[in-house]
Amino acid sequence: MRGTHAAAVQLVDLTPILAQFQENASRSRELLRDARLVFCLGNRAMLSLLAGQAMPSARVLGAFTTAPEARGAVAHERPGLLVISDVLEEGDGIETAVSLKACHPDLHVLLLIHRQHRLHAIRRAIQGDCDGLVLESSFGTGALLTALQVVNGGGIFIDRPLRREFRRGHESGGPLQPLSERELQVLTLAANGRKNAEIGRTLFLSAETVKTHLGNALVKLPARDRTHAAVLGLRWGLIDWPEVEPCR
Asked: C or N terminus of the chain, fewer CB within 10 Å?
């Protein structure tokens, strides 16, 4: 980690959720096995917890506190997943996430939201195709664990309190043709970050049959790719959101 402490850095007491972090640590490491990650968070305590929790199963390519460092790491290291917060010690996390997603479409971006009242900026993140948005205040509910699993697998996750913003402006519209029940099942699992082989095992289908169902869904929606199809399905209420695993 680099960068200097800014006088205005906000402090967050993480004591109430430390036990939950510890309980989820082994599961997070399993979920992120072999992942290539970059972390960029304005809160250094949170950064230490998350970056430490991901190791050693994941390859953490960098842990930073400023936007310029995140941009440099993504450009040079080409990670698969960027976990970034809206509040950074330098720069704007949301604008950084959106610009990096535009330059690197294959990069999965999970955005941690501290300032929930910044609705315009949050809408900008959603419109900029960020793959996941989670409130810091939701960490103890299991939302972060679910988001990591879904986003790292190529799915879409928006924390429950932010879903109204996700659907804003998209209440109307729908697919060109109705999707079949099987196509909806396949699309739901794809939105949850499942690969074709996993979807096939769940639904007792071959990977080729899953590919065919996804192709049909893309034509009916219509959608550019499976991620766009998942976004449209979620926006229009055709499929359900991933369930957050409760605390134990």
From this structure: C
Report strand pairing: 36-40 vs 81-85: parallel
Half-sphere exposure of residue 244, counting CA atoms within 13 Å on the CB side? 18
Domain residue spans of the chain = 15-167, 181-235
Please tell me if the domain spanning 15-167 has the same topology as the one spanning 181-235: no
In this structure, whether the domain defined by 181-235 belongs to CATH 1.10.10.10 is answered with: yes
What architecture is the 15-167 domain classified under in CATH?
3-Layer(aba) Sandwich (3.40)
142-190 confidence digits (pLDDT tens): 788 889 889 998 999 999 888 888 887 665 679 999 999 999 999 999 9
Per-residue pLDDT, 50: 84
pTM of the model: 0.81
